[in-house]
Amino acid sequence: MRGTMSTKKRQPYPGKLLDFHRPKRPLHTPQIPVLTEDSKRCLRNLANYEPPKQRLSFPRSRLAAVLVALFVGRKGDLYVLLSRRSSSLRTYAGDTSLPGGKVDLEDHSIEDTARREAFEEIGLPRDKLKVPLLCVLEPFLAAELIVIPVVVLILDKSLTPLLNQAEVASLFSHPLASFLSTTPPFPSEPDTLEFEYHTFHDYDYAHSPGARKDKFRVHSFLTGREAGGVKPVFGLTAAMLIRTATIGYGREPSFEVHAPGAPSTEERIAWALLTRKVFVDACEKEGVDLTVARRIAGVDDQGSRMRLRERSRKQVRSKL
């Protein structure tokens, strides 16, 4: 699942997908490297994280999940698995993404969705002993989906990826802590010398209530593999990894995550549920109660601005 989520038509899976997993166990099973203190703190924070209680209700048909799969590198630092989408896909071909997709009928939870998609796309086993859950984050808004990240830790170092070539061209990793920094993690890479490792752009947010002129900030991080055709970590994927790293390492990024005065993610989701056709239709079809969404977005049942809020603004203006 990439920086800007979209629905995707499931491609046939490779015939040997169920044979995946691991080569024959060697005499000496690879051990997880010794964790740095930063990594220990990060894993503790993620394992103890509980997202804020969700006030909004979502249509199931518009829910999706991605798997933020972490593993320990040779020096004890934490890395996240990223994939390059197949060039044959109809949408967002070649983009850098996290494994994930829409909720299916057989999924019992968001965690099930993320694990199933990761198994189907990159062959990561659904075994919770080999790949235990760390936490589930709060929802993020994509163009036509509400996406929930599921963070796991890969413990079994002998696991071997098996890519579904119809969807995934390649698999690589990136240091998790680098999503909090403007300094490239690979300064010797020639691709990072001519361009800034981290950049952002503020876009006009067209879905704000009333006549508000809000901005929405989109981040981008180089991977150091751009010469080989790998695209930067961008948009929704970048936002989810910034959030994962912020929670884990317990510190804010060295850059401003949000544009000044930007609406919260909850506000953006609430307004999307009320105004974007794909969400409006899904909510109507599934009977989703939008009372809380209207309250958060600041509109009444007819979609107009709440009179009390507008009256308050007029009073403030009159005093200036």
From TrEMBL:
GO biological process: coenzyme A catabolic process
InterPro entries for this protein: CoAse (IPR045121), NUDIX_hydrolase-like_dom_sf (IPR015797), NUDIX_hydrolase_dom (IPR000086)
Molecular functions (GO terms): coenzyme A diphosphatase activity
Positions of the Nudix hydrolase domain: 61-197
Residue spans crossing the bilayer: 131-155
Region (Disordered): 1-22
Keyword Metal-binding tagged: no
Pfam families found in the cross-reference section: NUDIX (PF00293)
Keywords of the record: Hydrolase, Membrane, Transmembrane, Transmembrane helix
Annotated PANTHER family: NUDIX HYDROLASE (PTHR12992), NUDIX HYDROLASE DOMAIN-CONTAINING PROTEIN (PTHR12992:SF45)
UniProt protein name: NUDIX hydrolase domain-like protein
